[in-house]
Design brief:
CATH superfamily of one domain: MetI-like
CATH class of one domain: Mainly Alpha
CATH topology of one domain: MetI-like fold
Structural class: alpha/beta
Shape: elongated
Distance between the termini: 53 Å
Radius of gyration: 33 Å
Number of strands: 15
Strand order of the largest sheet: 7-8-9-3-10-11-14-13
Strand content: 5-15%
Largest sheet: 8 strands, mixed
Length: about 650
């Protein structure tokens, strides 16, 4: 852990509350260890001449019905009381963590069963559950420990479920899945380390509640039995002489309150320390444009073949299909860009190709082949190994691309260990080499650092390096430059281009910025409402786009010579929601050329011109180049700004 990060957390302990809570808990633990050794014999001495006496110089808190010193017995009882409370907490945390994370490993039906069971158990009060289990498991310390642990488990299970679900959706988990990690490996290496801190914090607070619950069971006679004793049993015995010697009951009760308060305050202090940890964020501006990428001949068999790809999710009103019949091919060494507005299905298409759509999502296709292997018909283990070694995934947000609890080099090395059978040392050496290949300075030192110690651009480079740990034939980059500033965007795109040219890898670049794909790709797929509406070479993008939507996207991009006093070009309306797509052309409500035919029938993606290099799905394709502001595109007037 970095020194600065550790100092930031320890500073919370220097606050009055943090310091008092820590000192009090240390004192309690020391007392639990030392009290039986120092005063154990004195606490057991029976004095028949001093039965049920009040406080005195010889006995500060008085004596019990056998003449034993109550102060010594309260001090000695601290070990058993704290010991049993901590043991019950550990049982509750262990069972709760297993139940809470089980849905991420089990099949969907089994996971839902576990989740439903936990939900029912959480609805019952914890004390009621503890009494229920105590009666079933029997009277005694063992039964009480198990009863309290089982009663605490549902709460921790619900917490673990929520935390695991939030972590499972992060990009670094998806990256590990692409790398071929199984469900158990994902849970142990990526999910559990990222939910450990809040679980530990809540366990510390829960220990105080367990102490109170255990004392309550012992007070009722269901917990510790004679000749052993804890604070709850001493409280029950002292209650019988409360009118003769009130301190006999008040002393063990005060001990329960003070120690429970120590656990709770320390838990709150730990929560504040965890919450004080900050994370850097990177912001950036949209990329203004690039020089056109040089053309490259596509040779050999296609790397990726997609025909009639559909992705559907169940909803309250039936199935929603955000990706509807997408078809395209990526050749060996080819760079293909996918562009469109948010919600057009770009990222879902990439996730479906990478086999990252989880249930209840359903992926179907007439043909979905990667390196000649039909992914939908291949066993999961075999497909995972193929994708882990031959497909690299670069995600949108570089901050979430890596597991924040593991070092960069270790995360890269995991790919080589999993798929290439390299030893730990050899895999680390390859990780350092791959970091050098993507131009990460001081790669050996950087490999030992955590993701938060990298800048946004360095994290994105390291993410590309992770993809190069194998022998990728296809690099899928999903909005890799969105969160980066303009200079770093150019560096990342140049790096992707260099990887493609040097290693012969194909590139599938997804972006909402049409100028980015125009500068980095040889071919462009324009998507709208879950469909590819135009597939054209980059050389034709500015000179001969045929679909009105493509022309609108291009016209809406301001150029350096754009008249600042002229109104901005906009696309009227908004894209339809996946559940709102009706029959006919989805772009018809926003298209100035739409007619009855457009509203009644959805056009098929068909070839235009000579050859099959340019395809368009439109009943009224346009001709000619696109100006800075297309004559066919509506414009919007901006309000005038008063200058002083």
């Amino acid at each position: 852990m970095p020194v600065r990060k550790a100092r930031g957390r320890l500073s919370v302990l220097h606050t009055p509350v943090g310091g008092c809570a820590t000192a009090l808990l240390v004192l309690v633990l020391a007392l639990a260890v030392l009290a039986p050794l120092v005063w154990g014999d004195r606490a057991s001495v029976v004095d028949t001449g001093a039965l049920q006496q009040g406080p005195s110089g010889a006995h500060p808190l008085g004596t019990d019905n056998l003449g034993r010193d109550i102060l010594y017995r309260v001090l000695v009882a601290s070990r058993l009381s704290v010991e049993l409370a901590v043991l019950a907490t550990l049982i509750g945390v262990a069972i709760g963590t297993v139940l809470g994370t089980a849905p991420t490993v089990l099949p969907r039906w089994a996971g839902r069963l576990v989740t439903s069971t936990v939900g029912i158990a959480v609805a019952f009060p914890g004390l009621l559950l503890a009494l229920f289990f105590a009666v079933i498991l029997g009277v005694g310390a063992k039964g009480a420990v198990l009863a309290i642990g089982l009663a605490m488990a549902p709460g921790f299970a619900r917490l673990a479920q929520t935390l695991a679900a939030s972590v499972s959706g992060r990009d670094f988990v998806a990256a590990a899945r692409v790398a071929g990690a199984g469900r158990a490996r994902l849970l142990v290496r990526h999910v559990l380390p990222n939910i450990a801190e809040p679980l530990i914090v809540n366990a510390t607070v829960g220990a105080g509640m367990a102490l109170l619950a255990f004392s309550g069971l012992s007070f009722l006679g269901l917990g510790v039995q004679a000749p052993d004793y804890d604070w709850g049993r001493l409280l029950g015995e002292g209650l019988n002489q409360i009118y003769v010697n009130p301190t006999a009951a008040l002393a063990p009760g005060a001990a329960v309150v003070i120690v429970g308060l120590a656990f709770n305050l320390f838990g709150e202090t730990m929560a504040a320390a965890v919450g004080a940890r900050g994370r850097p964020r990177s912001t950036g501006a949209p990329y203004p444009g690039h020089a056109q990428a040089p053309p490259m001949d596509v040779t050999g068999d296609p790397v990726l073949v997609v025909e009639n790809l559909r992705v559907a999710f169940p909803g309250t009103g039936g199935w929603t299909t955000p990706v509807r019949g997408v078809s395209f091919t990526v050749g060996a060494g080819e760079s293909v860009g996918v562009v469109g507005e948010s919600g057009s299905g770009k990222s879902l298409t990439a996730l479906a190709v990478s086999q990252l759509i989880e249930r209840p999502g359903v992926v179907t296709a007439d043909r979905l082949e990667f390196l000649g292997t039909p992914l939908l018909d291949t066993p999961e283990r075999q497909a995972r190994r193929l994708l882990g070694t031959s497909l690299a995934m670069v995600f949108q947000d570089p901050m979430t691309s890596f597991n924040p609890t593991r070092r960069i080099g270790r995360q890269l090395a995991e790919v080589a260990e999993e798929h290439q059978g390299l030893s730990r040392g050899a895999a680390h050496a390859r990780a350092v080499d791959r970091l050098r290949a993507v131009r990460v300075p001081a790669a050996a030192r950087r490999a030992r650092q955590y993701p938060h110690e990298f800048s946004g651009g360095m994290r994105q480079r390291a993410m590309i390096g992770m993809g190069l740990m194998g022998d990728p034939r296809l690099v899928v980059a999903d909005e890799p430059t969105t969160a980066l500033d303009v200079t770093v965007q150019r560096q990342v795109l140049r790096l992707l281009t260099r990887v493609r040219e040097s290693d012969g890898s194909a590139l599938l670049l997804i972006s909402h910025d049409i100028t980015v794909v125009a500068g980095a790709c040889q071919r462009v797929l324009v998507m709208y409402a879950g469909r590819v509406v135009e597939d054209l070479p980059t050389s034709d993008l500015r000179s001969a786009p045929r679909h009105p939507y493509t022309r609108a996207l291009l016209a809406a991009v301001p150029a350096l010579d754009t008249d600042r006093d002229a109104p901005l070009a906009v696309i009227p309306g908004r894209p339809p929601e996946p559940a709102e797509v009706l029959s006919g052309c989805a772009f018809a409500p926003r298209c100035p050329f739409a007619d009855e035919r457009c509203a009644g029938a959805d056009p098929v993606l068909a070839n235009v011109g000579v050859g099959d290099a340019h395809r368009v799905a439109c009943w009224h394709p346009r001709d000619g180049a696109v100006a800075a502001v297309d004559d066919d595109l509506p414009v919007v007037e901006l309000p005038e700004v008063a200058h002083e």
